[in-house]
């Protein structure tokens, strides 16, 4: 059995060599001739899986992407050729949610908004939108969900339409890139919707660049009273617009999902899908490859109150993930090299909240305990 994998898949060699002959390929120059003997193919979002890549892969039976998004797979072509496929939905949901929380805490600190008074409009209530909603709930930040496809199912949650979302102080996008059909998301943030946004609003896009009409966004940002904008994704990556970069508040190089756990969970899910296809029991678990960070001492200013202050929450959560670090590094690196792809592929080590144990001393209120466990921390009471 020959398993070919994109070389940016963390621990790909360790995982896939337990199932057969594992062959790494370079995502930048892989071509049809490289995959002639592949039975299984594992990619991340930077390998475009289409006829051009697969037309010589006559023994290929299964393609898996270790990412949540699937728009780099030509699924119609795969179906036509009886090649099964799957993705790693949910693998990096916590990472993206923590990215959004970091942006919100930073906006609060810079007095762009007041987290006690705003409503966050979450567009797309799948793995990422749901993970974000759990964090917002733990932080007592009001939110609304918009997800017309889910609203048509028996999902018991309350959903609102896009018009209501556009009234929120924060609009954060977590939908797949879908080009056509009833629920197409291409240019979901259309010129008309962008024109309606005002200076007190924050627009966050950590799903796919094509979900915002980017020329219309650039035009809006050149007019009076523009919204603040946080972007992780862009039109035409890796050749992104430098004009846009200059005009947005926070910019990162498509790394919202790149926590250590987010990427490794993607590999684990693909490995388990391959095992399932081969009728093998998975022998490896992602914990085999992860170290445990040292416990962190955490003493609330007033342990008897029911909720931590924004300043305390910010101090704790920003010490784990600070989006401003990524913004600064990205802008400097782009000014130096303009190598978007290389910058994102050499992303730093970033752990998720759930990797950490907090050591709390003394009696702490149930409200604080609920907040911290709701964010995913393990608590150790001293
Ligand atoms: N920047 C990054 O590093 C990452 C980006 N992503 C992107 O975020 C997307 C969402 O990720 P997941 O939550 O894991 O996917 P998911 O498939 O679990 O959830 C997407 C949700 O969007 C909803 N949706 C579809 N069309 C819609 C529309 N027109 N309006 C409102 N909602 C709509 C779906 O019903 C679904 O519930 C991925 O497809 C991927 O493109 C995901 C992870 C990391
Ligand atoms: O999971 C997704 O969808 C993403 O956008 C990934 O975070 C993209 O990561 P890479 O494929 O670029 O490593």
TrEMBL record:
Sample GO molecular function, one term: protein dimerization activity
UniProt binding sites for substrate: 45, 67
Pathway it works in: Cofactor biosynthesis; pyridoxine 5'-phosphate biosynthesis; pyridoxine 5'-phosphate from D-erythrose 4-phosphate: step 2/5
Pfam families with a match to the protein in the record: 2-Hacid_dh (PF00389), 2-Hacid_dh_C (PF02826), DUF3410 (PF11890)
Residues annotated for NAD(+) binding in this entry: 147, 232, 257
KW Signal (keyword) present: no
Domain D-isomer specific 2-hydroxyacid dehydrogenase NAD-binding: 109-256
Domain D-isomer specific 2-hydroxyacid dehydrogenase catalytic: 32-257
Uppermost EC category: oxidoreductase
Domain of life: Bacteria
Gene3D superfamilies hit by this protein: 3.30.1370.170, NAD(P)-binding Rossmann-like Domain
A biological process term (GO) from this entry: pyridoxine biosynthetic process
CDD domains with a match to the protein in the record: ErythrP_dh
Matching InterPro entries: D-isomer_2-hydroxyacid_DH, D-isomer_2_OHA_DH_cat_dom, D-isomer_DH_NAD-bd, Erythronate-4-P_DHase, Erythronate-4-P_DHase_dimer, NAD(P)-bd_dom_sf, PdxB_dimer_sf
Keywords carried by this UniProt record: Cytoplasm, NAD, Oxidoreductase, Pyridoxine biosynthesis
Keyword Metal-binding applies: no
Active site positions, chain numbering: 208, 237, 254 (proton donor)
One GO cellular component, as annotated: cytosol
Protein family: Belongs to the D-isomer specific 2-hydroxyacid dehydrogenase family. PdxB subfamily.
HAMAP family in alphabetical order: PdxB
Name listed for the protein in its UniProt record: Erythronate-4-phosphate dehydrogenase
Gene assigned in the entry: pdxB
């Amino acid at each position: 059995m020959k398993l070919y994998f994109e070389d940016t898949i963390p621990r790909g060699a360790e995982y896939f060599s337990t199932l057969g002959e594992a062959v790494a390929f370079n995502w930048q120059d892989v071509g049809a001739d490289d995959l002639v003997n592949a039975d299984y193919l594992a990619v991340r979002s930077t390998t475009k899986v289409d006829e051009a890549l697969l037309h010589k892969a006559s023994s290929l039976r299964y393609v898996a992407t270790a990412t949540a998004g699937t728009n780099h797979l030509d699924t119609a072509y795969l179906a036509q050729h009886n090649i099964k496929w799957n993705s790693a939905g949910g693998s990096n949901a916590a990472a993206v949610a923590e990215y959004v929380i970091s942006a919100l805490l930073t906006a609060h600190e810079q007095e762009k908004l007041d987290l006690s008074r705003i409503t966050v409009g979450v567009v797309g209530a799948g793995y990422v939108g749901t993970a974000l909603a759990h964090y917002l709930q733990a932080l007592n930040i009001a939110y609304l969900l918009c997800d017309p496809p889910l609203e048509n199912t028996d999902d018991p949650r309350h959903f609102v339409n896009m018009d209501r979302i556009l009234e929120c102080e924060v609009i954060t996008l977590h939908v797949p890139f879908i080009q056509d059909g009833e629920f197409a998301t291409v240019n979901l943030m259309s010129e008309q919707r962008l024109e309606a946004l005002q200076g007190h609003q924050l627009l966050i896009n950590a799903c796919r660049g094509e979900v915002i009409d980017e020329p219309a966004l650039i035009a809006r940002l050149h007019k009076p009273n523009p919204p603040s904008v946080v972007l992780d994704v862009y039109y035409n990556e890796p050749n992104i617009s430098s004009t846009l970069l200059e005009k947005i508040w926070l910019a990162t190089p498509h790394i919202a999902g790149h926590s250590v756990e987010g990427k490794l969970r993607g590999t684990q899910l693909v490995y388990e899908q391959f095992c399932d296809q081969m009728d093998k029991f998975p022998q490896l678990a992602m914990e085999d490859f992860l170290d445990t960070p040292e416990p962190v001492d955490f003493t609330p200013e007033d342990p008897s109150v029911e909720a931590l202050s924004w300043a305390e929450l910010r101090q704790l959560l920003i010490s784990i993930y600070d989006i401003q670090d990524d913004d600064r590094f990205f802008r400097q690196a782009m000014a130096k090299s303009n190598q978007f792809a290389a910058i994102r592929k050499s992303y730093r080590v970033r752990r998720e909240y759930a990797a950490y144990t907090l050591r709390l001393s003394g009696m702490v209120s149930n409200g604080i305990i609920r907040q911290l466990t709701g964010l995913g921390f393990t608590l150790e009471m001293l």
